């Protein structure tokens, strides 16, 4: 499950837990990792922490779902994840239930 972190039930964490889906959450370690590894807020963080998640899902042939429209916030990590998946011939399509799927 990929999506935006929000402070309510629409957060990818809440949706993933309700759906019994796999997700990645660094929690409070996000800022500590940025500082410890001297990573830029976008490119390096995506490369080291976000990119391995879709890599693992693709390698395991798992269904990849988005809780939020990845195109709403261009340049966000969610948008970067969608663009990354498109490199593997995934199409991001609405599922008709308020989510989006990466289909190959």
Descriptive key words:
alpha+beta
List the helices and strands and how they pair.
Elements: H1 12-19, H2 29-36, H3 43-50, H4 52-59, E1 64-66, H5 77-86, E2 91-94, E3 100-103
Antiparallel strand pairs: 1-3, 2-3
Account of the protein in words:
With 104 residues, the protein is α+β, with helices and mostly antiparallel strands. 40% of the residues lie in helices and 11% in strands. The chain is built from five helices and three strands, in the order ααααβαββ. It has helices spanning 12-19, 29-36, 43-50, 52-59, 77-86; strands spanning 64-66, 91-94, 100-103. Strands 1-3-2 form a three-stranded antiparallel β-sheet, with helices on one face. The mean pLDDT is 90.
Quick synopsis:
The chain has 104 residues and is of the alpha+beta class. It contains 5 helices and 3 strands; from the N terminus they run ααααβαββ.
Q: Can you give the helix content as a percent range?
A: 40-55%
Number of extended strands: 3
As a percent range, the share of strand residues is 5-15%
Q: On the 0-100 scale, what is the average pLDDT?
A: 90
* C-alpha end-to-end distance: 16 Å
Low-confidence runs (pLDDT<50, min 5 residues)? none
Main beta-sheet annotation: 3 strands, antiparallel
Give the spatial strand order of the biggest sheet. Answer: 1-3-2
What is the overall shape? globular
Rg over CA atoms, rounded to whole Å, is: 13 Å
Order of helices and strands: HHHHEHEE
The computed structural class is alpha+beta
Q: How many DSSP helices?
A: 5
């Amino acid at each position: 499950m990929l999506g935006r972190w929000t402070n309510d039930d629409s957060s990818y964490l809440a949706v993933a837990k309700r759906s019994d889906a796999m997700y990645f959450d660094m929690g409070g370690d996000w800022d500590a990792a940025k500082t410890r590894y001297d990573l830029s807020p976008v490119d390096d963080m995506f490369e080291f922490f976000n990119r391995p998640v879709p890599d693992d899902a693709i390698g395991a042939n798992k269904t990849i779902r988005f809780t939020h429209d990845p195109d709403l916030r261009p340049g966000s990590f969610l948008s970067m994840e969608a663009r990354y998946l498109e490199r593997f011939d995934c199409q991001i399509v609405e599922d008709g239930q308020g989510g989006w799927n990466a289909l190959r």
